[in-house]
Amino acid sequence: MAELKEHRILEHVLKNAVCGDPQSVVDSIDQYCRQKEWAMNVGDEKGLILDQIVKETDPLVLLELGTYLGYSATRIARLLKSGARLLTVEMNPVHAEVAKKIIEFAGVQDKVQVLEGSTQDIIPKLKAEYGIKNIDLVFIDHYGERYKPDTQLLEDLSLLRKGSVLVADNVGFSSSAEFLDHVRTSGRYDCTNYPAHLEYSNKPDAVEKAVFIG
Ligand SMILES: C[S@@+](CC[C@H](N)C(=O)[O-])C[C@H]1O[C@@H](n2cnc3c(N)ncnc32)[C@H](O)[C@@H]1O
Ligand SMILES: [Mg+2]
């Protein structure tokens, strides 16, 4: 058995999911993390909220802050229309490596690009190095303390347009309090809170949708 949980999850996916079928990859990760070992994927319950927001937004250009094993990237990618592109940022090289394998196995590698590095280093390069003008949907799911500064970076670099949608996971926890205060009180966003539970548990958690109004 692999030493790292992340490698054990990868092994489970390779053995139990169907190559080229992203839904089976998502389902096999959820099954493993509910039955065997907890892991910090957005998970099946909050995943349905994320799915709904992605479908409503119908985005072409997407950014994810915090890839982990590529669960949410695969989940999002399975809903994207042709030509849409998700850039997902991950600073931990072990996580990035596993995510690339999972994304490839799911068959969504043409829609998803894993960018290795920290969000604070990569966000300022999105325009010049990755040809991004602005972003239709941002999934914020790294560490709560970075939610606000990274949102402000996106604002300051004009990466958000009127109507850009931010979706932030784990706002039921205090580490994202400054972010919540910012989006709810700056007058620059229309916010909606979706109460739910922490992935694979019955602890209260929530997802925040914040639509940039300029
Ligand atoms: C909660 S996990 C992401 C889960 C993933 N979105 C999913 O639902 O499948 C958070 C990830 O963010 C990464 N991370 C934390 N801070 C970061 C930063 N400043 N820049 C890039 N990655 C970061 C961690 O290494 C970890 O893999
Ligand atoms: Mg999360």
From TrEMBL:
<dbReference type="GO" id="GO:0030425">
    <property type="term" value="C:dendrite"/>
</dbReference>
<dbReference type="GO" id="GO:0016020">
    <property type="term" value="C:membrane"/>
</dbReference>
<dbReference type="GO" id="GO:0032259">
    <property type="term" value="P:methylation"/>
</dbReference>
<protein>
    <recommendedName>
        <fullName>catechol O-methyltransferase</fullName>
        <ecNumber>2.1.1.6</ecNumber>
    </recommendedName>
</protein>
<dbReference type="InterPro" id="IPR002935">
    <property type="entry name" value="SAM_O-MeTrfase"/>
</dbReference>
<dbReference type="GO" id="GO:0042417">
    <property type="term" value="P:dopamine metabolic process"/>
</dbReference>
<keyword id="KW-0489">Methyltransferase</keyword>
<dbReference type="InterPro" id="IPR029063">
    <property type="entry name" value="SAM-dependent_MTases_sf"/>
</dbReference>
<keyword id="KW-0808">Transferase</keyword>
<keyword id="KW-0531">Neurotransmitter degradation</keyword>
<dbReference type="GO" id="GO:0030424">
    <property type="term" value="C:axon"/>
</dbReference>
<dbReference type="GO" id="GO:0016206">
    <property type="term" value="F:catechol O-methyltransferase activity"/>
</dbReference>
<keyword id="KW-0949">S-adenosyl-L-methionine</keyword>
<dbReference type="Pfam" id="PF01596">
    <property type="entry name" value="Methyltransf_3"/>
</dbReference>
<comment type="similarity">
    <text>Belongs to the class I-like SAM-binding methyltransferase superfamily. Cation-dependent O-methyltransferase family.</text>
</comment>
<keyword id="KW-0128">Catecholamine metabolism</keyword>
<dbReference type="GO" id="GO:0042424">
    <property type="term" value="P:catecholamine catabolic process"/>
</dbReference>
<dbReference type="GO" id="GO:0032502">
    <property type="term" value="P:developmental process"/>
</dbReference>
